[in-house]
Specification:
- The complex is a heterodimer of chains A (about 160) and B (about 100).
- Chain A is mainly α.
- Chain A is built from six helices and no strands.
- Chain A folds into two domains: about 40 residues; about 110 residues, Four Helix Bundle (Hemerythrin (Met), subunit A) (Up-down Bundle).
- Chain A is about 80% helix and about 0% strand.
- In chain A, about 20% of the residues are buried.
- Chain B is about 75% helix and about 0% strand.
- Chain B is built from five helices and no strands.
- In chain B, helix 4 crosses helix 5.
- Chain B is rod-shaped.
- Classes of the chains: A mainly alpha (about 160), B mainly alpha (about 100).
- Chains A and B meet through helix 1, helix 2, helix 3, helix 4 and helix 5 of A and helix 3, helix 4 and helix 5 of B.
Chain lengths: ~160, ~100
């Protein structure tokens, strides 16, 4: 009985050690550090093995694109406000539908622009990393499911008509 | 059937067993018990090797799988959160929805 318990104890300890080792070696410390800080650019640099030159070029592209993004954002908001004011004023359904169509058009334009930008970013990475990057981000752009970013505290209720 | 006249039955009635008395029997039993209690751990393991090897392989396998799966789930969750943050920064649709 003594040896049975001792042997079981030894095996349980070895299993715990093995589990912890496998956990440790399967983790990605750089990615977890970036996630803790919420720093997406640090994630890009570490997860896609960017050297300083690649990282600087991608950051420049990112900063440039942010201006385009703000302009798109402003236009979408304007179109949304216009549709709301039309609806509040009891405008004809055709006018409201036209405003909705305008919003959808702007959203499509913005999705296309974003996709082009992401492909430009991918082109600055190594081919393999670029492919992996696109396979991670493009589906989320297409399905627009990144709006539920955990750190953004967004209202998840649908805002589209 | 008359069993009293059966020679086999008579022989069995007369048969008595008189085993030789083993004066050392009690000592031998205690010696075996003593040997068992003084058995070393390695001897114990060797005598149950098959069972313990199977238990060890099973438990290490389960532990390795659990550790690896947990780490992969954490990597996936962190990566998803980072992608969401990254795209939220770039996607006007998100920013418009936020009312920026």
């Amino acid at each position: 009985m003594r040896y049975l318990l001792a042997t079981l104890g030894l095996i349980v300890a070895a299993a715990l050690g093995t589990g912890l080792l496998c956990y440790h070696f399967s983790c990605e410390p750089a990615l977890h550090a970036a996630a803790r800080k919420g720093d997406a650019m640090e994630w890009l640099q570490t997860d896609f093995h960017l050297d300083d030159r690649q990282f600087a070029a991608i950051r420049r592209l990112h900063d440039d694109y942010c201006g385009t993004c703000e302009e798109h954002c402003r236009r979408i908001q304007e179109a949304t406000r216009l549709r709301k004011s039309l609806a509040d004023a009891g405008a004809k359904p055709e006018a409201i539908a036209a405003a909705s169509g305008q919003i959808e058009e702007l959203r499509a334009t913005c999705e296309t622009a974003l996709t082009v930008h992401l492909k430009q970013v991918a082109a600055l990475m190594s081919p393999e990393d670029g492919r992996r990057y696109l396979s991670l981000v493009l589906p989320k752009v297409a399905t627009f499911d990144h709006r539920a970013a955990p750190d953004l505290h967004l209202d998840h209720s649908p805002r589209n008509p | 059937m008359n069993t009293h006249s059966d020679p086999l039955s008579k022989a069995l009635h007369c048969w008595t067993v008189k085993p030789p008395v083993d004066a050392n029997f009690r000592n031998a039993v205690w010696q075996r018990i003593g040997r068992r209690s003084q058995e070393s751990w390695s001897v114990y393991l060797r005598s149950h090797a098959t069972t313990w090897v199977a238990v060890t392989v099973l438990m290490l396998g389960v532990a390795a799988f659990t550790g690896r799966s947990t780490a992969h789930a954490r990597v996936r969750a962190d990566r998803d959160a980072l992608i969401a943050t990254y795209l939220a920064d770039l996607d006007p649709r998100v920013q418009a929805a936020q009312g920026h």
